[in-house]
Amino acid sequence: MSMKQINKNTRRAKIYKRYLIVSIIIGSIMVFVTGKEYIEKNIPKELTAAYNSSKDYDSGINYEYDVKSASAQINGSDTKIYACGMPVGLYLHTDGIMIIDYAGFESIDGNKVTPLKNKVKKGDYIVKVNGKKVGSKQEVIDLVEKSNGETIELTIKRNDEEITEKVKPVKNKNGIYKIGLWVRDDTQGLGTITFVTSNGIFGALGHGISDLDTGEMVTSFSGNLYYANIWGIKKGKIGEPGGFCGSIDYNEENKVGTITKNCETGLFGNVDLNKIDVEKFKEVSVAKTDEVKCGKAKIIIYKDGRYNEYDININRVRKRANQNKNLVIEVADKKLLSKTNGIIQGMSGAPIIQNDKLIGAVTHVLINDPHQGYGSLISNMIQ
Q1: CA trace torsion 246, 252, 258, 264 (10° rounding)
Q2: How many C-beta atoms surround the C-beta of residue 320 within 10 A?
Q3: How many beta carbons lie within 10 A of that of residue 290, not counting itself?
């Protein structure tokens, strides 16, 4: 082969090599962009940092709940406020039986039937069956199964009004009377107390508890707080939020407080001062909205009898944003990142401290970046 031919082949090899490298780079960019678009389209951007474990288909002072602002009004110069940060078990008694959805089923004669189609909506509450008040989904099931196929009347609470719907139960393929509903009653979970006062008033979570399936705020008439045994932590990662691992005994001996309100800005009620010594927590003053600034801050988690403070950054203060997303926060503490990799479920309600003042509570984690999340201004919870 001549020298001229060798040089020609060498040039071709170099051109081919460059073409191959450029093709690989372009291909990698396309894969990255496509993957990024898929993640953004298919993975939720955020998740409340509370864990809901319900799978069925929580002297010298005047205290009241302000319905308009959905916050705790605390009056009295002698009242002390403590930043808590204590994880607790939550149990909410719902005001009626929540309807998750209606569903079709196969009747005993082989037909597909949907007795309540277009009669009920997700988030409705069944409060009575044939005029009898019901307090659990099992009561509803029993009354339907014992109906002998006779028409029954459901009293349904929808928003602030009650409506009635009549339905005729149908035997399913197993010979049992059904009306085709997915329902849920009480709700349990895990969250963190944000603050407690010297006379036992508490605020927790920084956001209300909503149903996992309907997204509607759980309508509750009462509830309880319980000691939580936190025995481990599941680290968060992109697309998969972490969480506290623990157990809760929902018994009278383990009860430490009562919940009287579930609303957009949190859970409120009273702790049992015979079981929780509030003075072991950090006494704080409450920051005014205008005092909250971008910059360094801390979150508090009280665990195993120890008061733990971790560094965070407040990247944005959005005073006019959604009530529980005023603060854009980012975990900066290396110790906390090594334990949790950021904000995890069960951390909702963790107090945020800046310049020794209580300024808010952790509320959400960003699914695509567990180091970041949202917080609520304390002014949404305390007035």
Answers
A1: 40
A2: 5
A3: 9
Residue 5's φ and ψ, nearest 5 degrees, are -65, -40
Token pair of 73, please?
């009004």
CB 149 within 8 A of CB 177: yes
Structure tokens at 198: 């010297």
Q: State whether 293 and 196 are in the same domain.
A: yes
CB atoms within 10 A of CB 77: 6
| pLDDT digit string, tens, across residues 186-208 | 778 889 999 999 989 999 998 88
Residue 272 maps to a domain: yes
Same domain, 111 and 253: no
Residue 2 falls within a domain, yes or no? no
Q: Are 264 and 311 part of one and the same domain?
A: yes
Structure tokens at 160: 């602030």
Cα–Cα distance between 288 and 285 in angstroms, integer?
A: 10
Q: Tell me how far apart the alpha carbons of residues 333 and 312 are, in angstroms, rounded to a whole number.
A: 6
Name the residues annotated as catalytic. Answer: 207, 333, 348
pLDDT digits (tens, 9 = 90+) for 167-182: 999 999 999 999 988 8
Task: Please say whether the beta carbons of 294 and 317 come within 8 A.
Answer: yes
Q: What is the pLDDT of residues 72-129, one digit of tens each?
A: 555 445 578 999 999 999 988 777 788 888 888 999 999 999 998 889 888 888 889 9
- Can you tell me the distance from the alpha carbon of 180 to that of 115, in angstroms, rounded to the nearest whole number? 6
Instruction: Tell me how far apart the alpha carbons of residues 209 and 60 are, in angstroms, rounded to a whole number.
Output: 31
Domain that holds residue 116: 97-184
CB-CB neighbours of 183 under 10 Å? 19
Alpha-carbon distance 339 to 233, whole Å? 7
Helix boundaries (H) for the chain = 3-42, 137-145, 334-340
Residue 14 resides in a domain: no
**pTM metric for this prediction:** 0.70
